[in-house]
Inverse folding.
């Protein structure tokens, strides 16, 4: 997998993926586009959500919605890395089994989500969930 990031102007950068997609990033605290750190969070939320939805479907659950809300703590000094990330999954569906939802959410962070596993090697990654 490859990617390229080009400087546009000021602190604005254009990321281009190997698959041909582009996204603007703003290194000025997210004033005009997501910041790189926000992109990391969205990547963790997206990757883990794929696992949760796929896992529920594979388990025969009738999932209709999945919303991942991510909260973080960061260092106060440079480098301002995340020190903790929690992903809270809000899952909806018809007659969802709570034990299955709990297992699928845990498995995402502990076994399957590449982004979360990379982050978890360096910081405290936790999760929570609810059926809404």
């Amino acid at each position: 997998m490859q990617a390229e990031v080009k400087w546009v102007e000021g602190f604005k950068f254009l990321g281009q993926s190997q698959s041909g997609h582009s996204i603007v990033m703003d290194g000025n605290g997210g004033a005009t586009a997501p910041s790189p750190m926000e992109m990391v969070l969205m990547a963790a939320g997206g990757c883990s959500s794929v696992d949760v939805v796929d896992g529920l479907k594979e388990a025969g659950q009738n999932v209709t919605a999945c919303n991942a809300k991510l909260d973080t703590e960061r260092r106060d000094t440079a480098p301002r890395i995340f020190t903790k990330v929690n992903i809270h999954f809000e899952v909806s569906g018809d007659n969802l089994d709570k034990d299955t939802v709990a297992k699928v959410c845990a498995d995402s962070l502990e076994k399957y989500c590449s982004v979360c596993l990379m982050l978890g090697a360096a910081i405290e990654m936790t999760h929570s969930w609810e059926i809404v």
Observations:
- Residues 36-131 form a domain with the GMP Synthetase; Chain A, domain 3 fold (CATH 3.30.300.20).
